[in-house]
Amino acid sequence: MSLERQVRAKLASKRNPEQEKEAQEWIEGVLGAKFPPGEQFEDVLKDGTVLCQLINKLKPGSVSKINTSGGQFKMMENITNFQSAIKAYGVPDIDVFQTVDLWEKKDIAQVVSTLFALGRETYRHPEWNGPYLGPKPSEECKRDFSEEVLKAGQTVIGLQAGSNKGATQSGQNMGAGRKILLGK
C-alpha cells in the first residue's frame, strides 16, 4: 500500500459519523434550514458559505461579505473569513482547522472538531440563546480563604513532602547500588 493511501486511510478512520451528524443537526438548528438531501456533509461546507452564515447567526456581522460566486479562491476566502471570525468569537487558534482540510477534504474530522469548539464557545456568550453543541465548558471555581485558614495550612506536612507521621524512606535501598567503573 502506498504512503498516500495509508495516510488517507488513517484520516478516514478518525472520522466519526455520529459527531458529523450531531454537528450537521446543530448547524441546521442555528440556520433554520436543512442541508440539501443526498449531499455529503463535507460537500455542503466546502465552499464556506454555510460556515459564514453560521458565524453570522452566532455573532451578526462577523463576516461582512460572503462570496457566492467566483473562482476557487473566492470560495476559499469564505473559509478563511470564517476562521478569522471564529477566532475573534473566542475559539482557540489550536482548535481551528486548516483551509485545505475542508477544501481538499483532507481532514474532515478536524473540521468537525472545530465546529464542536465553536459550539462550546457559544456557552460563553450570554447573548446567544439558540442551540448548543458539545459539553458546556467548565467555569472557574474561585475560593477565598481567610488568613487564619491559610496559616493553619502552613503547619501541615503533605504526603508529597516524603513524610507521613515520621515514616520516611530514608535508609531504603532498591536493588543494587550504582557502581562507577573507571578505566574500562
UniProtKB/TrEMBL annotation:
Q: Where is the Calponin-homology (CH) domain?
A: 17-122
Instruction: Show the segment(s) annotated as Disordered.
Output: 1-22
| InterPro entries reported in the protein's UniProt record | Calponin-like, Calponin_repeat, CH_dom, CH_dom_sf, SM22_calponin
Q: Name one GO cellular component term.
A: actin cytoskeleton
GO BP terms in the entry: actin filament organization
An example of a GO molecular function for this protein is: actin filament binding
- Pfam families linked: Calponin, CH
Q: Which domain of life is it from?
A: Eukaryota
Which SUPFAM superfamilies does its entry note? Calponin-homology domain, CH-domain (SSF47576)
Name the family the entry cites: Belongs to the calponin family.
Name of protein = Transgelin
Q: What is the lineage of its organism?
A: Eukaryota, Metazoa, Ecdysozoa, Arthropoda, Hexapoda
